[in-house]
Design brief:
A seven-stranded mixed beta sheet has the order 1-7-6-2-5-3-4, sandwiched between helices. It contains seven helices and seven strands, in the order ααββαβαβαβαββα. The protein is of the alpha/beta class.
């Protein structure tokens, strides 16, 4: 993360204005289309919303991306376990994985228009305060989404973490994949170095995103899936986002 120059403040402000305009124009369209068309068609509109924001932050803020491992995404539906550092990956992963749905906190569905759109696009909303109920909902809805051909993106650390930080990995992704017999794909990236969590500023640079080899949900135990996914993600993070030693 570089120095916050006047130019960065200006470009970040311009991006915020464009992002707000995109959301203001497309959110009612995406919501309306969700009531009037088949899911496959309305999903295309939601992807356009995400794609336009990625294009805006690329050209306005100079925030590019280098992606490795696209060939590791299987043709069948599965579970993606990803590092979570910013809002950027929620946009990019939606474009990389076919028919992406997210496991998200239920409170987001209450946000006017944006939350209503989320509710119409088959995402899996859970109450994180009720662990057993949340796990039951994930397994029930997750299996259904996988049968429908969706990829389910889970952030196993539960919330956004700053570069260099690590939280305990939850095991729900491995459990769902093992119960459903689907592959798990780990994802590592350093988006938080350029688009920090809860930050107005966006810094120019190149985000490095790596997609790992799939883990077989039919032959591996849930614990082994989670262990291997966490080990791979953290090993990649040490390479693409090395942090200076603390004094």
């Amino acid at each position: 993360m570089g120095k916050a120059t006047p130019g960065i403040y200006l470009r970040s402000a311009l991006f915020l204005a464009v992002q707000s305009a995109i959301t203001f124009v497309l959110t009612p369209v995406v919501l309306g289309v969700s009531f009037l068309s088949k899911y496959e068609y309305r999903y295309l509109w939601a992807r356009w919303w995400a794609r336009l924001q990625i294009l805006a932050v690329t050209y306005i803020c100079g925030l590019k991306v280098e992606i490795e491992g696209l060939e590791n995404i299987p043709s069948q539906s599965g579970v993606a376990l990803s590092k979570h550092q910013s809002a950027w990956e929620t946009l990019m992963l939606f474009l990389l994985f076919p028919k992406t749905v997210y496991v998200l906190k239920r409170e987001l569905l209450s946000i006017p228009f944006f939350g209503w759109c989320l509710a119409r696009y088959h995402h899996i909303a859970i109450d994180r305060g009720q662990r057993r109920a949340a796990m039951a909902a994930l397994l029930k809805q997750g299996k259904q989404r996988l049968k429908e051909g969706h990829w389910i993106v889970i952030f196993p650390e539960g919330t956004r973490v700053a570069p260099g930080e690590k939280r305990r990995y939850a095991g729900s992704g491995g459990i769902l994949a093992q119960r459903a017999g689907v592959p798990v794909v780990p994802v590592a990236h350093n988006a938080g170095e350029f688009w920090p969590r809860n930050s107005f500023l966006k810094y120019p640079g190149t985000i490095r995103l790596r997609i790992g080899p799939p883990l077989d949900g039919q032959t591996l135990s849930a614990d082994e899936i989670n262990r291997q996914a966490e080990a791979w993600i953290e090993a990649q993070m040490a390479e693409i986002s090395p942090q200076p030693p603390r004094p």
